[in-house]
Design a protein that fits this description.
8% of the residues lie in helices and 24% in strands. By secondary structure, it is mostly beta strands. It has a domain at 16-121: Ribonuclease Inhibitor (Leucine-rich repeat, LRR (right-handed beta-alpha superhelix)), CATH 3.80.10. The strands form four sheets. The chain has an 18-stranded mixed sheet, with no helix packed on it. A seven-stranded parallel sheet has the order 3-5-7-9-11-13-15, with no helix packed on it. Strands 17-19-21-23 form a four-stranded parallel sheet, with no helix packed on it. Strand 1 (61-63) and strand 2 (70-74) form a beta hairpin. The longest helix is centred in the first third of the chain and has 22 residues, at 2-23. The N and C termini lie far apart (118 Å).
Length: 476
């Protein structure tokens, strides 16, 4: 009897493995089909995808505990070339599909919509084309959808409105068209929307104001029109706002003062008008603001001086005015101890450059006040800004001599002082600026000889001295 029981015991002990092999057979076959569809595997990354190895141990494959169903396929940055096999739609237990940064081409398989357990779909940085399949609306568990940097076309499928768990929708840098769909406002779980650098038209939907969890909105470089919706002020968790390079008009809404968590604001390259609302003083976490190339007007509000974390303050090519004769915004910004870049060029600023300019942040590396109507002397205190790499003060009405303190700026790489009324001599001490690569002081009233020390500057590549001494060349 014992001799008869032994084979039975061995059979039953092997039964779990046999059941597991039977239940995950379809997973293995789907992967074999996926590999067979590839035309190039430059690093032989999938060399171990063979029947000589247990498929749960193949490169990029993760399985669950017994019965060992495949739950993740991660093939990031392997240079794989070919279409994505529709057989992946048979991986019914799959939760993560990550093919980021490869060379997959063709369409996104419709069958991926069968993966109702899928939480993460990462197909960015490939060469996929055609429409986004509406079947992806069947991935009801989807939380993260990354489809950026492909050649996808068409519109965002309306079936996505039922993806009630979606946290991230990233489809930037494609060829998508149509309107930004209002139904996005119904996906209240969204924290991140990236739809930049496509061909979307129409206005920004007011329904986006329903996204109370949203902290990242990026729709720059499209063909969007209309005004910035006041409803966006309801997205009070917003930290990043990128609306630049569109055709937006109208003012910056006063209600945006409610967005007190904002850190980075990019509104440049639109047709915005009106004054900057003083309510933006509530943006106490602001680090970066780009408003250049608009039609904003009025004096720049002094409330920006309250923003202790401000690093980049870029407002060039607008219609801003000084507010008073001593450019009070510069004095206000002396409270911003982290400021690295300040650009107020191409506006209508008048008055004189205050001595307080020398109390701007020690971190300041870029200072631009060019193409305004600022007059008077350039204050000696500018020499206190020892980290300056670029100073651009050209096309103003500065007079007097070039301040000798500029030669203390040992990090200086570029100086633009042309098209002013500066007189006197070129500083011999400019020869101390060993990093200087560009010196432009043309169209002033300078006289005297060109300092020989300029010839010793190892980085100097551009030197523009023309039209000085009342229209004549400098005497040499």
């Amino acid at each position: 009897m014992k001799m008869m029981l032994l084979p039975l015991l061995l059979f039953f002990s092997a039964l779990p493995a046999l059941i597991a092999e039977s239940s995950n057979y379809s997973d293995r076959e789907a992967l074999i089909g996926f590999k067979a569809a590839l035309s190039f595997d430059p690093c032989n990354s999938l060399l171990d995808w063979s029947l000589d190895h247990i498929f749960c141990n193949w490169t990029g494959v993760t399985c669950s505990p017994p019965p060992q169903r495949m739950v993740s396929l991660n093939l990031i940055g392997m240079g794989l070339l070919g279409p994505i096999s529709p057989l992946l739609g048979n991986l019914s237990f799959l939760r993560v599909l990550d093919l980021y940064n490869n060379s997959f081409h063709g369409h996104i398989p419709y069958q991926i919509g069968n993966l109702f357990r899928l939480t993460t779909l990462q197909l960015s940085r490939n060469n996929l084309e055609g429409p986004i399949p509406s079947s992806l609306g069947g991935c009801r568990s989807l939380q993260y959808m990354w489809l950026s940097r492909n050649n996808l076309s068409g519109s965002i499928p309306s079936e996505f409105s039922i993806l009630s768990n979606l946290d991230t929708m990233s489809m930037a840098l494609n060829q998508l068209t149509g309107l930004l769909p209002p139904f996005i406002g119904n996906i209240t779980s969204l924290t991140t929307i990236e739809l930049a650098e496509n061909r979307f038209e129409g206005s920004i939907p007011v329904e986006l104001g329903m996204l109370s969890q949203l902290n990242w909105l990026n729709v720059h470089t499209n063909n969007l029109t209309g005004s910035i919706p006041i409803a966006l002020s309801n997205c009070t968790r917003l930290q990043m706002l990128q609306l630049y390079q569109n055709n937006l008009i109208g003012p910056i809404p006063w209600e945006f003062g409610r967005l007190s968590e904002l850190q980075d604001v990019y509104l440049w390259g639109n047709q915005l008008t009106g004054e900057i609302p003083t309510s933006l003083g509530n943006w106490t976490h602001l680090q970066v603001i780009y408003l250049e190339r608009n039609k904003l007007s009025g004096a720049v509000p002094l409330v920006f001086g309250k923003m202790k974390q401000l690093k980049r303050f870029i407002l060039w090519q607008n219609h801003f005015v000084s507010g008073s004769s001593d450019l009070p915004i510069l004095t206000a910004l002396t409270n911003c101890s982290s400021l690295e870049q300040l650009d107020l060029g191409l506006n209508y600023l008048t008055g004189v450059l205050p001595n307080s300019v020398g109390r701007l942040s020690n971190s300041l590396s870029f200072l631009a006040l060019n193409s305004n109507e600022i007059g008077g002397n350039i204050p000696d205190e500018i020499g206190n800004l020892t980290n300056l790499a670029t100073v651009t003060l050209e096309a103003n009405r500065f007079n007097g001599t070039i301040p000798s303190t500029l030669s203390k700026l040992s990090n200086l790489e570029r100086i633009f002082l042309d098209k002013n009324k500066l007189e006197g001599r070129i500083l011999e001490s400019f020869g101390h600026l060993r990093r200087l690569g560009l010196l432009s002081i043309s169209e002033n009233i300078l006289s005297g000889s060109i300092p020989e020390s300029l010839g010793d500057l190892p980085q100097l590549r551009e030197l523009d001295l023309h039209r000085n001494r009342q229209g004549k060349y400098l005497l040499v």
